[in-house]
Design a protein that fits this description.
Distance between the termini: 62 Å
Number of strands: 11
Oligomer: single chain
Structural class: alpha/beta
Strand order of the largest sheet: 5-4-3-6-9-11-10
Mean pLDDT: 91
Radius of gyration: 21 Å
CATH class of the largest domain: Alpha Beta
Shape: globular
Bound molecules: S-adenosylmethionine
Low-confidence stretches: 108-124
Length: 308
């Protein structure tokens, strides 16, 4: 019944969404739902199911209704304060993990097993000092999905996560605590890299970012799930959509250590333009693009050039 209701309201994923919403209402996993498929549900549960179907029918995305979304095999709490993590962003995380692994293996002065004797924190400051540990910055952390995944997958690394949105940082902090990596991530409110502590200048191993990249001019063409529910500051940007990428390309070299990495997610069709800006900046080497699982060039990355 839920499937028909959602299909009638235009949802392309009606069968799976109805199942997810029913499991949410009944608080059952998939196996338990199907094991008890013939069992009648209570009147209260039925009423709640009707209510969530109606919410979905009005366009509210399923992850906001159920309050969570999977990313990199981890469950992240989400609500309207943050953008819903997308599967294509996993390409960015996987690339950074692989790149950091190579950096750690290639440089005896950073990484795992070397945290003994390093300073966890600056004397008199609550901002950690990476010492000889790998360090990574997640710009525009939103739900914290990139920062938390990186902290989980790179146990020696120290992570800094920034966002312009105070509300998003509340969600990100809660997700870091949920996954027990809160002590390894420093959350900072402000514009792009500006809130980073000055002692990080020239020492960051990698800057990761999934900036807003949908041109405001395309707003009307977007599905209402995005247009009417996700935070505009997370989704939209003026002009051609790559203004934040341009700023990150200009600002990152100040923070990156020798051959440190800047890797950014881009929208469909933006990769060549962003890679072009990076290549012509003069401060980057090994500029490249990576495709997502749908074959769309989704990540642009480059390393701080030795001469910069
Ligand atoms: C596309 S969302 C990405 C969220 C999350 N990193 C992810 O991948 O799901 C962009 C994020 O950047 C933040 N943001 C937008 N402009 C910013 C700025 N100038 N400085 C810092 N963060 C910004 C938004 O609040 C939002 O959380």
């Amino acid at each position: 019944m839920g499937r028909e209701h959602l299909a009638a309201s235009g949802s392309a994923e009606a069968p799976i969404e109805a199942e997810v919403l029913l499991r949410h209402v009944l608080q059952l996993d998939r196996a338990a739902l199907y094991a008890g498929w013939d069992r009648p549900i209570s009147e209260a549960a039925w009423d709640q199911f009707q209510r969530v179907l109606a919410e979905r029918g009005r366009g509210r995305p399923v992850p906001y209704i159920v309050g969570q979304r999977e990313f990199m095999g981890l469950t992240f709490a989400v609500d309207e304060r943050v953008m819903i993590p997308r599967p294509e962003t996993e390409v960015l995380v996987e690339f950074i993990v692989e790149w950091m692994g190579r950096r750690e293996r290639g440089n005896p002065h950073v990484g795992s097993g070397r945290s003994a004797g390093t300073r966890e924190r600056d004397a008199g400051s609550r901002i950690p000092d990476p010492g000889s540990r790998l360090s990574v910055v997640d710009v525009g952390t939103g739900s914290g999905c990139i920062a938390v995944s990186l902290a989980q997958l790179l146990p020696p690394a120290i992570v800094f996560a920034t966002d312009i949105s105070v509300e998003a940082l509340e969600v990100a902090r809660a997700n870091a605590a949920r996954h027990r990596v809160g002590h390894r991530i420093t959350f900072l409110q402000g514009d792009l890299l500006a809130p980073l502590p000055p002692h990080l200048a020239g020492r960051v191993d990698a800057v990761a970012g999934n900036p807003p990249y949908v041109p405001v001019s395309q707003r009307a063409a977007l599905p209402r799930e995005i247009r009417d529910f996700e935070p505009p500051v997370a989704v939209f940007i003026g002009g051609d959509g790559i203004a934040v990428h341009r700023r990150l390309i200009a600002e990152a070299p100040r923070w990156l250590g020798p051959s440190g990495l800047l890797a950014m997610e881009v929208g469909a069709g933006q990769a060549d333009a962003v890679a072009g800006v990076m290549a012509s900046d003069g401060k980057y080497a090994r500029v490249r693009t990576l495709a997502d699982y749908g074959g769309i060039q989704r990540v642009v990355a480059g390393e701080r050039a030795a001469s910069s």
